[in-house]
Write a structure and sequence with these properties.
Four Helix Bundle (Hemerythrin (Met), subunit A), about 75% helix, mainly alpha, 5 helices
């Protein structure tokens, strides 16, 4: 059986092309997987920072709630004022840090007279911190009046913050995505 050299060359060329296509496809799949892994890493870093911020926020909200139970007249002179003042400063800073994660929206339509970061409407997740800040400010540092009213406001603010941040962190969705990615890595 004589096989034409052109047939052999064509068969070798087809084999090389098929092998090249298979290698290209494998490299493409690997690159796509690497892109997904990189995106997951970036997302995880973002969520780690967001989780840290939300943990700090929750601690401040708890401190604010328990400040309402403290009797200024049983504290040393000026101690309640200092505690309240420090808490207000921390809450204010936490609100501004939250703007890095949750910038205002509708910035072109509202608040044009304000600095750029404060134009538009505040994101809902920050409302709880703002309401708590206002409630802490209302507590009379001499005799603690308004403490019960502030406690109720802070309690509602804490629950609102918890609900909003849980929607954003979506722990069940992240777990499902992690499991899906883990299966893809195992298959590669």
């Amino acid at each position: 059986m004589n096989i034409e050299p052109s047939v052999v060359i064509s068969a070798v060329a087809v084999t090389i092309a098929a092998a090249s296509a298979a290698v290209s496809f494998r490299n493409y799949r690997r690159e796509r997987l690497n892109q997904k892994i990189q995106a997951a890493k970036w997302q995880k870093e973002y969520f780690v920072d967001l989780l840290k911020w939300s943990d700090e926020s929750m601690l401040l909200l708890s401190e604010a709630l328990h400040l309402c139970d403290l009797d200024p007249q049983k504290c040393g002179k000026g101690e309640f004022f200092n505690i309240r003042h420090t808490l207000r400063v921390k809450l204010s800073a936490q609100i501004d840090k939250g703007r890095w994660f949750f910038p205002n929206y509708v910035v072109d339509e509202y608040g044009q007279h304000k600095e750029e970061a404060y134009r538009g409407y505040r994101h809902k997740v920050l409302d709880g911190l703002v309401y708590a800040y206002r409630a802490v400010t209302k507590i009379n540092y001499v005799n603690g009046s308004n403490g019960e009213e502030s406690r109720e406001s802070i309690y509602r603010a804490k629950r609102q913050f918890t609900s909003e941040i849980q929607k954003l962190l979506a722990p069940e969705t992240r777990d499902a995505e992690f499991n899906k990615l883990t299966k893809l890595v195992a298959q590669a």
